[in-house]
């Protein structure tokens, strides 16, 4: 894990890469996902403006005496990541180091943390001081998982567009609070 940590980047670098890929898409995936880079950056910006760490959660973090690190496997174009990553970065700011590993730069890390045999992101890897995996979380809070299961159970009654819309509305209203709480419980 230490090698992956060394290859990971800061949140600022993550944002800069997203902006570069939006402005100058080079790879076929960048070209295909250009619209999603734009949406991701807008949603990240919204989360950064709206998210305020919850005082009770900050106290809980302090009480847990967690001295490890948080590594997030992500990509800027991901809708789930655009709500979760900035909230986590702001929540842990000044307390625990948070770095981001770009999923598509090296699939060997995400392949260790598959969700139902998929490379779903974001995936939060909780590391102790010695870079040992303490726990992992992701790719979305429990409520988001429930929405996904509702869609998968009956896509005709609950179409993909409705699922995506409901999920983004949830993220906009929840502002990362559920994701932070679920991760706190894993520390």
Briefly summarize what is shown.
This protein is of the alpha+beta class and 187 residues long. Helix content is 56%, strand content 11%.
Q: How do the strands of the widest beta sheet line up side by side?
A: 2-1-3-4
Shape: globular
Radius of gyration: 16 Å
**Total number of beta strands:** 4
Distance between the termini: 17 Å
Tally of helical segments? 10
Largest sheet: number of strands, sense, barrel closure: 4 strands, mixed
Binned, the helix content reads 55-70%
Summed over residues and divided by their number, the pLDDT gives a mean of 96
Short key terms for the protein model shown above:
10 helices, single chain, four-stranded mixed sheet, about 190 residues
Describe the structure.
- It is a single chain.
- With 187 residues, the protein is of the alpha+beta class.
- The chain has ten helices and four strands.
- It has helices at 2-7, 11-23, 28-32, 34-50, 55-64, 79-92, 107-110, 142-153, 160-174, 177-184, and strands at residues 69-74, 98-102, 123-127, 133-137.
- The chain has a four-stranded mixed beta sheet.
- α2 packs antiparallel against α4 and α6 runs parallel beside α9 (160-174).
- It is globular and about 45 Å long.
Topology overview:
Elements (H helix, E strand, L loop, with lengths): L1 H6 L3 H13 L4 H5 L1 H17 L4 H10 L4 E6 L4 H14 L5 E5 L4 H4 L12 E5 L5 E5 L4 H12 L6 H15 L2 H8 L3
Parallel strand pairs: 1-2
Antiparallel strand pairs: 1-3, 3-4
């Amino acid at each position: 894990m230490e090698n992956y940590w060394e290859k990971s980047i800061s949140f600022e670098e993550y944002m800069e890469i997203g902006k570069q890929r939006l402005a100058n898409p080079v790879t076929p995936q960048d070209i295909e996902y250009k619209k999603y880079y734009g949406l991701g950056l807008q949603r990240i910006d919204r989360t950064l403006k709206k998210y305020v760490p919850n005082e009770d959660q900050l106290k809980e973090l302090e009480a847990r005496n967690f001295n490890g690190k948080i590594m997030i496997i992500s990509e800027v174009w991901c809708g789930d990541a655009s709500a979760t990553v900035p909230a986590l970065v702001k929540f842990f700011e000044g307390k625990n180091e948070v770095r981001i590993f770009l999923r598509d730069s090296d699939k060997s890390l995400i392949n260790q943390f598959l969700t139902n045999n998929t490379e779903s992101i974001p995936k939060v890897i909780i590391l102790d001081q010695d870079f040992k995996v303490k726990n992992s979380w992701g790719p979305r809070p429990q409520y988001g998982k429930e929405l996904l299961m509702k869609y998968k159970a009956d896509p005709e009654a609950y179409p993909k567009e409705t699922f995506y819309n409901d999920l983004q509305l949830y993220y906009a209203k929840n502002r990362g609070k559920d994701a932070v709480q679920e991760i706190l419980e894993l520390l």
